[in-house]
């Protein structure tokens, strides 16, 4: 039996949770939350319904040495919460540029969890980025508020394909310049 390999990605501590690399044991909770149509519809990449094996493959990609995106579990277990409260990731898009993406399980909506996770990742700046980009669907104003509350500036409108909706969806695009 293969042992979990150490993923070269830092653990980031916040007040109510830690951001940690994904583990194979996260599969069940991720399937439960990401399988919720309300979660999947607000992301570009989560299909609905979830195909068998998709979360297992996602975790394997997140743990691969040659990955293009670092993915963290929002893990509240040390503070008496769930091991998976959501997921947050940084995708490399260019030298010094990353795109942030996140989702929070419905049980934790409207609790400030996403804002706290975004702030923690900005503060840690694990990829030593100079700019962080983000895009949210225009029918998801809560995610737009997370970004503006964390200092992101509106760049403009665009659209992105949503796998769960099988359609292009209007987005708002944001950026955050990081100093030093």
What features would you highlight for this structure?
single chain, 180 residues, alpha+beta, Aminopeptidase, eight-stranded mixed beta sheet, disordered N terminus
Summarize the structure.
The protein is an alpha+beta fold. It is 24% helix and 32% strand.
Structural overview:
The protein is of the alpha+beta class and 180 residues long. The protein is 24% helix and 32% strand. It has helices at 27-34, 37-40, 54-63, 113-124, 141-149, and strands at residues 12-13, 18-21, 69-75, 86-94, 97-104, 131-137, 153-162, 167-177. It starts with 11 loop residues before the first strand and ends with a strand. Residues 1-5 have low confidence and may be disordered.
Element layout with pairings:
Blueprint lengths: L11 E2 L4 E4 L5 H8 L2 H4 L13 H10 L5 E7 L10 E9 L2 E8 L8 H12 L6 E7 L3 H9 L3 E10 L4 E11 L3
What's the main sheet like?
Answer: 8 strands, mixed
Global structural class:
alpha+beta
- Determine the N-to-C terminus distance: 44 Å
What amount of the residues lies in strands? Answer: 25-35%
- Indicate the CATH architecture: 3-Layer(aba) Sandwich
Q: What's the number of domains?
A: 1
CATH class: Alpha Beta
